[in-house]
Amino acid sequence: MMPFEFRFRTVAVNGIEMNVAEYGHGPLVLLCHGWPELWYSWRHQLVALAAAGFRAVAPDMRGFGRTSAPDDVAAYTILHNVGDMVGLVDALGEKRALIVGHDWGAPVAWHAALMRPDVFPAVVAMSVPHRRRGALPPLDTLRKAGKADYYYLYFQEQAAEDEFARDPAFTLRCLFHIGFGETPRAEKMSLYVDRQKGFLGPARDIPLPPWLTESDIAVFADEYRRSGFRGGLNWYRNIDRNWALTAPWHGAKIRQPALFIAGTNDAVITGSMGQRALDEMGDVVPNLQGKLLLEGAGHWVQQERPDAVNDALIEFARAHLVSAA
Q1: Of residues 177, 236, 266, 320, which has the active-site annotation?
Q2: By CB distance 3.0 to 4.6 Å, which of 99, 127, 151, 212 could disulfide with 109?
Q3: Which CATH number characterizes residue 217's domain?
Q4: Catalytic site includes residue 224
Q5: Are 34 and 60 in contact (CB under 8 A)?
């Protein structure tokens, strides 16, 4: 049984069938999850936003959970994902929404704001800063730099799918553990992959972080046991295609009010590339209202620190969504 009587339905959007969880009434807030997650990653935010007077909607994104997973790898581009969110707003009978994204959902939210400011008057992103579009395709750049062990490149391979699908419960326990802010440094997430050991390393007992229960893991694992990991990995397989498709927005800036939230121990922003993106974000998002960096939190910030994230979301939504309605 799901908590709080979330409403579930399947919505036809942009040529696919999208599973959504919904709670509350009021101005619309869309919550876009990342990899390897589900709508369930937003369970705490759905409840808090609804209590604050918002209509909170968290879909299983394209290729995840009970949403359609097209066979064609090229059907997972940033344009498809932004199109899904535009279509979802319309299918829900609304004209505009605050869009919120975490992990891979953050680039969807950023690009939705960039491409459709009429639909998304404000944006919140977690863990992944908005970056200036580079001069060269990202995967080609990594290969030419000799970084063939970077995880983006491993995720292009069938081996990644096979590794993650071998034991979905272990995969998810491991990924939540190594991305948790308080996990010991020696057990932290590495962005580079030893092909002999795989991304996850050897089978072992993995402790659950205090913000997850066995029931929570079961929700994720049951869905991935059924769906596999291919849909989500196909997002990574479009990184260079996304670079090509976004050429018309080269040099464009996101001018809506924006908020960035991350944990100070998130590997995405603590590496050299991530730190540079964090430092330069104000250049490409000139109306950035703030960078909320939660001390000691890791990558799974909205699950690790739900109260702080909820407070920031609600304050931002009241300031920039209600006033734009």
Answers
A1: 236
A2: 99
A3: 3.40.50.1820
A4: no
A5: no
Is residue 182 a part of any domain in this protein?
yes
pLDDT digits (tens, 9 = 90+) for 209-265: 999 999 999 999 999 999 999 999 999 999 999 999 999 999 999 999 999 999 999
Token readout for 50 is 């609804």
The strand pairing partners of 260, in sequence order, are 125, 291
Range of the domain at 311: 3-320
In a domain, 37, yes or no: yes
- Cis omega before residue 36 (within 30°)? yes
Residue 236 falls in the annotated catalytic set: yes
- Which of 40, 76, 84, 103 does the annotation list as catalytic? 103
pLDDT, tens only, 302-323: 999 999 999 999 999 999 987 6
In a domain, 140, yes or no: yes
The question of whether 154 is a catalytic residue gets the answer: no
* Total domains present in the chain: 1
Q: Examine residue 325 and state whether it is found in any structural domain, yes or no.
A: no
**Radius of gyration in angstroms for the set of CA atoms belonging to the chain, rounded to a whole number:** 18
In this prediction, residue 272 carries a pLDDT of 82
The whole-model pTM stands at: 0.96
